[in-house]
Write a structure and sequence with these properties.
41% of the residues lie in helices and 12% in strands. The protein is an alpha/beta fold. It folds into 2 domains: 138 residues, HAD superfamily/HAD-like (Rossmann fold, 3-Layer(aba) Sandwich), CATH 3.40.50.1000; 68 residues. A 6-stranded parallel sheet has the order 3-2-1-4-5-6, sandwiched between helices. Strand 4, helix 7 and strand 5 form a beta-alpha-beta unit. Helix 3 runs parallel beside helix 5. The chain is globular and about 55 Å long.
């Protein structure tokens, strides 16, 4: 049975970026473990990447530094990993099929925001792909708020910049911390199964498998 259109009582849609706009989660993991190997912890890092999906780089590197006390500072490790991710994203341009069309159609009827756990340079690099930047009225990164996902602050700040109430927003997320953060912000959440299976995202308002379903739910097309 095809999904029915959701109530159209919304004024904005806020997108997560990694795992929603670009297929970047495996690329973030690749960049992280490349840096870890480069600094000599290839076999002893003790990091379970899945524990950090949807969270900020500061979280994973902060835990890594606390555990291993490497010669490099936290700031240097963040920079090394960010530079590696930028190289990979600019090379691969991994925008999900159907995402660009969804963004273009939503932008005609409501305001769009982006709330990302990535750093500002990575966000800007992604938004430069396929001229996506012009569609987003507000973008917020994890480094621009006090607490990242699963805290709701990043979504609340994005709604504030968009000039809309949290209750008037739909969020599109792929991660469990992102779903938790959006619900805590008082927003409704469409979770897409790009990163986790549907059962793990069941707390979301709606769970979908592709962008065509999101378009039907929000626009009725």
């Amino acid at each position: 049975m095809p999904p029915r259109k959701l109530n159209n009582d919304f004024r904005a849609v806020i997108f997560d970026m990694d795992g929603v706009i670009v297929d970047s989660e495996p690329r973030h993991a690749h960049a992280f473990f490349e840096v870890v190997r480069e600094i000599g912890y290839g076999d002893t890092h003790g990091v379970n990447w899945d524990d950090y999906v949807g969270r900020s780089d500061h979280d994973i590197w902060g835990d890594f530094v606390a555990k291993h006390k490497p010669a490099q500072s936290l700031e240097r490790l963040l920079e090394m990993k960010r530079d590696r991710v930028l190289e990979i994203i600019q090379r691969d341009q991994p925008v999900y099929a159907g995402l660009t069309e969804l963004v273009e159609r939503l932008a005609r009827v409501c305001r769009l925001g982006l709330a990302s756990g990535s750093d500002r340079p990575v966000v800007e690099a992604v938004l430069s792909l396929r001229d996506l930047r012009r569609h987003f009225s507000a973008t917020v990164t994890a480094s621009e708020v006090m607490r990242g996902k699963p805290a709701p602050e990043i979504f609340l700040r994005t709604a504030e910049l968009l000039g809309v109430a949290p209750a008037d927003c739909w969020v599109i997320e792929d991660s469990k911390p992102g779903v938790t953060a959006a619900l805590a912000a008082g927003m409704r959440v469409i979770a897409i199964t790009n990163t986790h299976p549907a059962d793990e995202l069941r707390r979301a308002t709606v769970v979908v498998a592709n962008y065509a379903e999101i378009e039907r739910l929000l626009l009725g097309t």
